[in-house]
């Protein structure tokens, strides 16, 4: 049985919890985005968690191998995480064939008891291979590119009982539901009172270092919201559009008029700078 003592994701997050800063867990959909994210981590001397969706593994099978090589060759702590893995057979295939550090075993589309039962079994199998496990307690509404849409399911806030049940399922990272949503909040970010910071703080106190706390649903966050979430215990900060929208906007404005090689290089520069900005906001710059 492999040990979790040397697990890269857990080492990165435990250091962040001790240092009271947040670490970006950033989605990449292609090699250019992956490269820009790693460049930012090296430039800012920041830890980083690279995230791939299961759909991306199927669409671009070689990207996971490129990410694993980036993890090994980096001079700062980087790990590879598979986000929102919702198919049990695919989870088993991932852990058996890819060099990943952690997997989000996302059974939140099942009712709670079945969610817990499936999570418990899969967590045990992952741990045998030294792979850390994240799970979602409660239900975070919405959908985004790469994951199933749960917008038609009732949102459930994480309760103290949920926290204990998922810890008993032997997970390593807990993603609570505190009013956060997958997808967009709008240009002003979450509405006043939408995110229950007191619930996040209470969850962090309850887990008391038994598991690490992850925050999903950060699209459109202003810096002050992100900072407040970190102050209340979130250490793994899942980011998708929050970083990638600058890349998307750059392509929209320049793809028709810019030669391809220059478009790629300038696009990576834009994304790298935005990632560096958020590393500064989250307090991880200079921590590697």
Automatic annotation (TrEMBL):
This is Fructose-bisphosphate aldolase. Catalyzes the aldol condensation of dihydroxyacetone phosphate (DHAP or glycerone-phosphate) with glyceraldehyde 3-phosphate (G3P) to form fructose 1,6-bisphosphate (FBP) in gluconeogenesis and the reverse reaction in glycolysis. The active site is at 83 (proton donor). Belongs to the class II fructose-bisphosphate aldolase family. GO terms for biological process: glycolytic process. The keyword Zinc applies. Pathway: Carbohydrate degradation; glycolysis; D-glyceraldehyde 3-phosphate and glycerone phosphate from D-glucose: step 4/4. CDD domains: TBP_aldolase_IIB (cd00947). One of its GO terms (molecular function) is zinc ion binding. It comes from Clohesyomyces aquaticus. Its EC number is 4.1.2.13. Its cofactor is Zn(2+). Zn(2+) 1 binds at residues 84, 182, 216. Pfam families: F_bP_aldolase. Zn(2+) 2 binds at residues 106, 136. It catalyses: beta-D-fructose 1,6-bisphosphate = D-glyceraldehyde 3-phosphate + dihydroxyacetone phosphate. PANTHER family: D-TAGATOSE-1,6-BISPHOSPHATE ALDOLASE (PTHR30304), D-TAGATOSE-1,6-BISPHOSPHATE ALDOLASE SUBUNIT GATY-RELATED (PTHR30304:SF0). The keyword Phosphoprotein does not apply. Binds 2 Zn(2+) ions per subunit. One is catalytic and the other provides a structural contribution. Keywords: Glycolysis, Lyase, Metal-binding, Zinc.
